Amino acid sequence: MPELYLLLRDLHYLISRVGFAVVLVMLAVAVYIGLIRHGDVTPWYRRATYAVAGLMLVEAVIGAIMYIAIRARPGEDVHLIYGMGAFLALPFFIFVEVTAKKRPAMGSYLWGFSVLAGILIRSMMTGPHG
Length: 130
Description:
The chain is mostly helical and 130 residues long.
């Protein structure tokens, strides 16, 4: 079991850092499309957003496995709240964007990736599992 914990802990750490970098890239692309070009959401951007949401789901599942099955605890309990926030942030803003009647709706992703970046930074500050 210690080997599984170490593998999951390292994977959780790696995904959090890679995910944060991807979120920053997606935020920069949203700024370019929405604020500089005054464009709307493109199909590839929406698909990439779904992929990032999927990555946050994988991150949450790994954290849940460590918490429930292995009984590893984060450095601070608030890490669990940030984990749920990271998982729920993009689906909320995706819903807002796809149901928006006014176009362009890129502002939803500007907000979504900004909020997600903040959640991820704060989550990484609450300490590793252990």
